[in-house]
């Protein structure tokens, strides 16, 4: 497993030629992280991090349901992602397709897992791409910097729900 970065609290690794593993530990319980991860008005408060302003958040949280997040980046261009929920274990696991609309043919599968120990939650996201080129494009996109700010905000949003 090759480490890409480990700055602040987010750790990004490359377990294979087509995978990206993202891990972060939160000082918040799992149920509040899950709630902030899956509730549109709460996602709106953290998803863009410091990278831009949210334009829309749509979540139909059920197997077969879809999601779509759109922001206007600080540089003025629109960034959008969408997908379909393939598996849901409330509070524990979400498996969905993941499409960056700037690369519409590059569908990935993201498996998000939440585990809690002593009131702290570990978020683990395994993104499985269809090619090394797509994986490398995600890594080169500035994803890690965006994750640092957005997941720090996610922790604050979750803790505001206490």
């Amino acid at each position: 497993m090759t480490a890409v970065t480990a700055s602040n609290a987010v750790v990004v690794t490359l377990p294979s030629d087509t995978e990206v593993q993202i891990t972060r530990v939160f000082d918040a319980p799992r149920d509040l992280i899950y709630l902030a991860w899956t509730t549109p008005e709460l996602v709106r408060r953290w998803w863009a991090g410091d990278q831009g302003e949210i334009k829309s958040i749509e979540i139909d949280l059920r197997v077969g349901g879809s999601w779509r997040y759109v922001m206007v980046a600080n540089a003025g261009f629109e960034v959008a992602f969408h997908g379909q929920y393939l598996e849901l274990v409330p509070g524990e696991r979400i498996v969905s397709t993941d499409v960056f609309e700037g690369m519409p043919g590059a569908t990935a599968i993201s498996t998000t897992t939440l585990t809690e120990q002593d009131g702290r939650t570990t978020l683990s996201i395994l993104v499985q791409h269809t090619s090394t080129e797509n994986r490398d494009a995600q890594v080169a996109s500035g994803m890690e910097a965006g994750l640092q700010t957005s997941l720090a905000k996610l922790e604050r949003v979750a803790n505001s729900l206490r």
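Confidence is low (pLDDT under 50) at residues 1-8. The first strand starts at residue 2 and ends at 5.
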